[in-house]
Amino acid sequence: MLLTAAQTDALTELVNISFARTAASLSELTGHPVLLQVPSCVMHPIAQLDSQLADFMQGEVATVQQTFTGAISGSGILLLNYESAVELAELVMPGEGWHKRRLDSSACEVLMEIGNILLNGCIGMMGNLLQIQLSFSVPQLQIRALDKLLYSFVIGENELSYALGMSTTFSLRDSLVTGYLMLVLDVASIECLVQAVESWA
Known about the structure:
8-stranded antiparallel sheet, globular
């Protein structure tokens, strides 16, 4: 399923509005200004995600995943390279002794909080702007190989077949950490999302 240039532009604008407001919550959490940048949104079939992400992520990835249901149902997922996940946790909560460059329980808690604010805030704000009521599950953090993640997107009995992907840059404490945000959806949810975005735009 391909998006037109106008649909892509409208989705990108919507996400950037949501991210600008979500960044305020992250700034409050850290006590420092946080900027979130989303250059563009791209729709990919799940089957093509491995090649799309191959140059961006390798080996183990840290993911915070949150399921949402309503007129649009799917999963929101924040993906970070393992090293980027450690760096982001250190930037948000410095001085916690993560010098070993490993994600211990404290670092995982920080990433869970970041993912919860980002996913719930961004997707929730999109729902509010589009006037779509959504319900959210409790977010889950996992560390696993990327290829094992890509084919595990299932809600109920419906396999989710498309991903709306957005590279994401966290700007914090004069440092940049790059991650990837995905909304994984089935065809019916994508069609509903596109119709709502067109009406909003």
